[in-house]
Design a protein that fits this description.
By secondary structure, the chain is α/β, with parallel strands linked by helices. The chain has 4 domains: about 240 residues, Dimethylsulfoxide Reductase, domain 2; about 120 residues, no CATH class; about 120 residues, 3-Layer(aba) Sandwich (Rossmann fold); about 140 residues, Beta Barrel (Barwin-like endoglucanases), CATH 2.40.40. It is about 25% helix and about 15% strand. It has 22 helices and 34 strands. The strands form 12 sheets. The chain has a 6-stranded mixed beta sheet with strand order 27-29-28-34-26-32. A hairpin with a 4-residue loop joins strand 6 and strand 7. The protein is globular, with a radius of gyration of 26 Å. The structure holds ligand MGD (2 copies) and molybdenum atom (MO). One ligand MGD binds next to strand 2, helix 8 and strand 26. One of its GO terms (biological process) is anaerobic respiration. Belongs to the prokaryotic molybdopterin-containing oxidoreductase family. Keywords: 4Fe-4S, Iron, Iron-sulfur, Metal-binding, Oxidoreductase, Periplasm, Selenocysteine, Signal. It is found in: Periplasm. Its main location: periplasm.
């Protein structure tokens, strides 16, 4: 999928789920964690849609399923690989779609290979891949060479076939514990229903192979022609309120707002940045610099490029790694806003010891959460801790105006319902106040490193800052007139340096009034597009890649679910949805009009994530500067095709390649690792309806505590019998990193299963407790492992090894 539009969002939307004929819900318990998804899924089910749920536990979502498969945590790529193999062998793919809208025909370098679990380019010392061999064969115009047919052994399609031929139903059963016949049934049912939607959340992402699991979804959906269609897509059900907005706004280590690549320490100039990232980013980065530095960003000073801090790409500064660095004394201050790290981070003793090494910890939260009280956790002596702790009381969601973005990419505006209570303040007020104070302290400085603070444009109002002004900055201005740019089209047409946007994908959200505040909820097409309810990025397109819902001539393939079409009389892409095309006036017979995945440099969906920068002139230009390409393709750091690896701690070796059992590039931070001889069972962790994440809010609500008073360990009846534990008994659950005592829940929701012939048990535990609040309880993250996906940095919360005994 596209790197820029795909970083976790729905390709479709919540309300579009009603258009699906079949659902694969694997790695999400949406009935409990995303009830709005379930509302629309139920509407589809009422019309006869089939629901497939794959989960280690029988959940409330599973209770709605036509097919439920219990899986060993962390093994999805094995059964998904078997489904891909089945689609290819049985020719169940949508041939026209595969030929026209995917990179199936493009030829891959002869240097590419996968050998015993290791892709070409592996460096054993650095445990990283050089990705040069994962490239296309290129023609003299720098375009990938295209094979004559899918039979060509060099083409992506052939590579896919060879790769997944090893993934038989029997092998997938031995790895995942799902019976082969059931995997086949899932494959058949999912391939028969069109359109089909895939829904996922943490069950897929919280693994050392999380990114590759989602790549497997992309392959299946591209083969079946399910992307770009109403009722299709890959739908990431995102978690925290406004987590979509915060990642759009660069709450990610490697991005600036709008998913622009972050500058690195070797980028001395804007030119250096563009050589690495492609000229596509010039307009958007300059517009961002104009938003941040206004008149201080000029052509002469590279638009203030060097005001931006640069990252060191050899340092991984994702969440868990930050705490590792804190333990090494590399941080003086932590500003902890809206997160209860001491409860939510895996192998959490790393957090406790890290916080104690700070000079100052600032916590902004609604409640005095565990993180703010780390110095008085039982077992810790406050006298030994030098960290100064400051608490800012934050205003809650209904006490402040602003926009929130949901998983459908809808930017939704809301007003404050009441004034902030007591001394609490909205986060925006706090930041505005801090910034102004800090700037005062720097006043008059001529030190270049202070310039970013002194030169910044900061004009959200005197007194209380206006959230609307912030959204307007994101939407964008014509800097020559100071007027808001009406639409994303106007922004794209504006010459470089004349427009600003604080987040280019939000362009136009307030261009014609505050469109995020729109609340028209009629649905004239019946397709659940609701195009006059708020504003969806980009450009109010509700279903991404919707060019792929039409055939080569620009006619909708699905007569019942027409999204867009080429209006040959008016010579424009028209329709019920906004057209996700390069240029609305370029017809289906033009090169631009053929592109169904405009954010990819090849213009097609990526079955194989190839190393590729479009537009590079082959001969270096004569002026001595390195050539600038247009746009790179999205790369995975751990391989161009999803391969099955065992979780970091696993009850089994990898039967596909025993010598390379776990991902050779996984980032293992925990130093204490367990073996299955000592810790024979698989632990998986999950959320409960009654509490929210680390429980900072919900454990302070008495009636929620009453219905969900304490954490527990969910075990099968077999395991209960084996260890002599009955429902309600206390058990000690131990991993190599810690142990906690909780109540046992002996249940049918978990069953014993076979992994490569061996009886295996999963233990399930919620994780929302800590030592503070009205209802304290042990933290499950004492047990979990800090092992990260090498690309995303997401921890493997969903699998580690434990033992259990009667307490
Ligand atoms: N009530 C409530 N709602 C919430 C939250 C909450 O805490 N409480 N949290 C919010 C947040 S921040 C998020 S991110 C979302 C999370 O939403 P979900 O991802 O739905 O949350 P989880 O319960 O962690 O995990 C989902 C399911 O994945 C299963 N699972 C575990 N391992 C695997 C695996 O290897 N493969 C497969 N196929 N499934 C697996 C688990 O058993 C679980 O049923 O929910 C949001 N909504
Ligand atoms: N074992 C295990 N661990 C997990 C997970 C798992 O599945 N298993 N899931 C992971 C996931 S997906 C997530 S998202 C993280 C969540 O981890 P955290 O982000 O640490 O958890 P939350 O409890 O959501 O913390 C949010 C805090 O923000 C405060 N808050 C709410 N609104 C505001 C506001 O407007 N302003 C400010 N300043 N504060 C506010 C709340 O009171 C709360 O304390 O946990 C992760 N940890
Ligand atoms: Mo989350």
């Amino acid at each position: 999928m596209s790197p820029s539009f795909g970083r976790g969002a729905m390709t479709n939307s919540w309300s579009d789920l009603k258009n699906s004929e079949v659902f694969l819900i694997a790695g999400s318990n949406c009935a409990e964690n995303h009830p709005i998804a379930m509302k629309w899924i139920n509407r589809a089910k009422e019309k006869g849609a089939k629901i497939i749920v794959v989960d280690p536990r029988f959940t409330r979502t599973a209770a709605k399923a036509d097919i439920f498969a219990q899986i060993r945590p962390g093994t999805d790529i094995a059964y998904l690989g078997a489904i891909i193999n089945y689609i290819l062998n049985q020719k169940l793919y949508d041939e026209k779609y595969v030929l026209n809208y995917t990179n199936a025909l493009l030829k891959i370098s002869k240097d590419y290979k996968l050998d015993d679990g290791i892709f070409s380019g592996y460096n054993e010392k650095t445990r990283k891949y050089a990705t040069t061999s994962w490239a296309y064969q290129l023609g003299p115009d720098n375009k990938p060479l295209k094979a004559e047919s899918l039979e060509d052994p060099d083409c992506v399609f052939a590579k896919l076939k060879v790769h997944y031929s090893r993934y038989t139903f029997a092998t997938a059963e031995n790895i995942s514990g799902i019976p082969a016949a059931k995997i086949k049934e899932i494959a058949e049912v999912f391939c028969q229903g069109k359109p089909g939607s895939i829904l996922y959340a943490l069950g897929m992402t919280q693994h050392t192979t999380g990114v590759q699991g989602i790549r497997a979804y992309a392959i299946i959906q591209l083969l079946l022609g399910n992307i770009g269609k109403a009722g299709g897509g890959i739908n990431a059900l995102r978690g925290e309120p406004n987590v979509q907005g915060s990642t759009d706004m660069a709450n990610l280590v490697s991005n600036l707002p709008g998913y622009l690549p972050y500058p690195i320490n070797t980028d001395k100039t804007l030119q250096d940045y563009l050589v690495r990232n492609g000229s596509f980013y010039e307009k958007h980065l300059v517009a961002l610099l104009k938003a941040w530095y206004g008149a201080n960003a000029t052509k002469e000073n590279d638009y203030g490029f060097n005001y931006l801090p640069k990252t060191n790409p050899s340092v991984n500064a994702t969440m868990v790694k930050i705490f590792e660095m804190m333990n090494k004394g590399q941080f003086k201050l932590l500003f902890n806003v809206g997160s209860n790290s001491l409860v939510s981070i895996p192998d959490r003793k790393l957090v406790r010891s890290g916080l104690a090494k700070l000079d100052m910890l600032v916590v902004s939260d609604l409640f005095e959460i565990e993180t703010a009280q780390f110095w008085r956790e039982p077992g810790v002596n406050p006298a030994d801790i030098k960290t100064e702790v400051i608490m800012f009381p934050a205003a809650f969601v209904y006490e402040k105006a602003g926009s929130m973005s949901n998983s459908s990419r809808w930017i939704q505006w809301k007003e404050a319902a009441i004034k902030p209570l007591g001394e609490s303040k909205p986060d925006l007020d706090l930041l505005d106040h801090l910034f102004k104070k800090i700037r005062k302290l720097y006043e008059g400085s001529t030190d270049v490193k202070d310039a970013p603070i002194l030169k910044a444009r900061w004009d959200y109002g005197e007194g209380e800052p206006s959230a609307l002004k912030v959204l307007q900055e994101l939407s964008g201005y014509d800097e020559t007139t100071g007027k808001l740019l009406p639409t994303i089209g106007d922004y794209l047409k504006a010459p470089i340096g004349t427009a600003s946007t604080g987040c280019w994908i939000y362009a136009g959200v307030t261009g014609n009034g505050n469109l995020a505040a729109r609340r028209k909820n009629d649905d004239p097409t019946g397709l659940g597009l609701f195009r006059e309810w708020s504003f969806a990025w980009p450009g109010n397109v509700r279903i991404l890649y919707n060019r792929a819902s039409c055939d080569e001539a620009g006619r909708p393939v699905d007569a019942k679910r027409q999204l867009i079409w080429w209006d040959s009389a008016a010579k424009v892409w028209a329709g019920n949805d906004g057209a996700d095309v390069v240029d609305k006036t370029k017809g289906p017979d033009t090169p631009e009009g053929k592109q169904s995945f405009r954010m990819n440099p090849e213009g097609v969906g990526r079955l194989f994530a190839a190393t590729y920068m479009s537009g590079l002139p082959v001969a270096p230009p004569t002026d001595g500067l390195p050539p600038i390409g247009i746009r790179p393709g999205g790369l995975c750091v751990d391989g161009p095709l999803p391969e099955y690896y065992e979780p970091t701690e696993s009850p089994s070796t990898n039967i596909l390649h025993p010598k390379v059992s776990i991902s050779p590039v996984a980032l293992v931070v925990s130093t204490q690792l367990g073996k299955s001889e000592e810790y024979p069972h698989v632990l998986t962790t999950y959320g409960v309806v009654e509490h929210f994440c680390a429980g900072g809010i919900t454990r302070n609500i008495p009636w929620l505590n009453e219905i969900m008073p304490e954490p527990f360990a969910e075990i099968s009846k077999n395991l209960g019998e084996k260890i002599g534990v009955k429902e309600g008994d206390m058990v000690e659950v131990a991993s190599a990193r810690g142990k906690i005592t909780v109540r046992a829940l002996v249940t049918d929701r978990l069953q014993t299963y076979k992994v490569n012939g061996k009886d295996t048990e999963t233990i399930g535990m919620p994780w929302s407790w800590g030592f503070a609040s009205l209802s304290p309880g042990p933290s499950t993250n004492d047990l979990t492992i800090a092992a990260l996906d090498p690309g995303a940095g997401t921890p493997e919360y969903k699998v580690c090894l434990v033992n259990i005994r009667r307490a």
